[in-house]
Design a protein that fits this description.
120 residues
């Protein structure tokens, strides 16, 4: 099982229980993404999700999973649907922290951003 699949499973459980406290999801998201993005960028992406998708009921937990999948290199265009605003936010956040990222991870992330039209 891929790390993002396990995370989706956790998010599905949160959703089915109707939870509105994002603390557990945030801890799980950060645990997955900090090794790739570092603390600042991971927190910023979570904050972006919380402001855009976590403010109304029901929360769009799957979008948080899509962000995790992107960060982990497991994003699937066929089953996941981040939109242009999401990709632009990811671009801005990652670009701001680029100097802190490992070169191979930065290259992979930027390549994914290019393929989704977030960089020209």
């Amino acid at each position: 099982m891929r790390a993002s699949d396990h995370f989706y499973s956790e998010l599905d459980g949160i959703s089915r229980r109707g939870e509105t406290d994002t603390a557990y999801a945030e801890r799980s998201f950060l645990k997955l993404t900090i090794p790739v993005l570092g603390e600042t960028a991971s927190e910023e992406i979570f904050r972006w999700w919380a402001e855009r998708y976590g403010a109304e009921q029901p929360f769009l937990w799957e979008k948080l999973g899509h962000f995790a999948a992107f960060v982990l290199g497991e994003y699937d265009d066929q089953t996941m649907d981040l939109d242009s605003e999401d990709w632009a936010a990811a671009r801005d956040i990652i670009s701001a922290e680029a100097e802190e990222l490992a070169m191979d991870e930065l290259t992979r992330l930027m390549s994914d951003l290019v393929s989704h039209g977030a960089l020209r």
